[in-house]
Amino acid sequence: MKSLGNIRRSFAPWADPVSKPFISFNNVTKRFGDFTAVDDLSLNIYHREFFALLGASGCGKSTLLRMLAGFEQLTSGEIVLDGTDLAGTPPYKRPVNMMFQSYALFPHMTVEKNIAFGLRQDGMAKEEIAERVLQMLKMVKLEKFAARKPNQLSGGQRQRVALARSLAKRPKVLLLDEPLGALDKKLREETQFELMDLQQNLGLTFVVVTHDQEEAMTMADRIAVMSHGKVIQVATPAEIYEAPNSRFVADFIGDVNIFDGKVASANDSTVEIAVDEDFSISVITPEKPAMGSSVGFAIRPEKLRVSRKPPANPKVNAASGELWDIAYLGDMTIFHVKLKNGKVVKASLLNAQRAVDDPFVYDQEVWITFAEDAGVLLKD
Ligand SMILES: Nc1ncnc2c1ncn2[C@@H]1O[C@H](COP(=O)(O)OP(=O)(O)OP(=O)(O)O)[C@@H](O)[C@H]1O
User: Fold this and answer.
1) Same domain for 201 and 276?
2) pTM for the whole structure
3) Which residue's CA lies nearest to atom 24 of ligand 1?
4) Which of 28, 59, 225 to mutate to test ligand 1, by most ligand atoms within 8 A of the CB atom?
5) By CB count within 10 A, which of 8, 223, 304, 310 is most buried?
């Protein structure tokens, strides 16, 4: 797994002030009539990065990819690749290739011919084509299937042919629009890791569009979360999850509890938020919200502790309630706790032990507590 590899751990060109972006979207806008699909968007992607564009349907992520590939003209702004403004460069002359869904394979051609197609069009010598195709077949582990037609393959195999075909021309950048959309869960997960290996071994830059947050979290070095043609946050999966910059991102990625309140006090590092008369939240944050302003506090279910005993200070970072629902999922248990103020919060507990002496039961009075650095302040 890439994320555990030492090489990858130190891969962070975006944090290095001397490294130059490989792809830059500078103030890119795309309008269809009076509808703005991409709105004054700026974004940098680095060489060898696995970059994911994540967002709900219609947020503009495919349009962004299609502009990079050259299938769509910009209304304004520029896209720079490796120091060159791409305006005026037709799609087939760009050093990018787009991987289409598996159904874009030619049904009457064998796997081998499908992979060779682009190379032939480019007029590559026959022997060279044969060599390249074999290399691609090995890479996607389909040597034995070279002579089959697409309809004689499984969905996953077809997907791998589509991948081999799009990599055969050795593009500097591979664009993938929902590449694993057609696959079932298990195959999808396997293919995710294959894609990550390939990208790393070939030293390519991948830009993938997906609406599947788990997929983006698994594969990407960084994720851009998009909404209504704008980028809301660009960060590593861990940062997106642990330090969402907005209510939108906190809510979009994973499960979250959000509390609303007003800023009651603040010092250099800590802000106190009054939620109601029995419950206030002390949070360590670099944010400097105005006194009395309305803010939110986001905390993930696994960061909440559930206990039967009241904590030492029951007014700060602690609230009591009733165990409303218990869902045992095997590896973890999810608790829904209905607080005194009526709000239902979600807490998850890892089942690290097989048997528990004194398990939680429904309707029991419990306390949820959390640490000062367990959640984030949301100013919007
Ligand atoms: N050719 C077009 N003419 C008019 N509107 C378009 C055109 N292409 C896209 N749009 C609109 O632009 C918006 C963004 O489309 P886009 O395909 O980029 O979304 P997306 O985020 O990729 O969504 P999905 O996940 O559903 O593919 C949508 O509201 C879409 O209806």
Assistant:
1) no
2) 0.87
3) 57
4) 59
5) 223
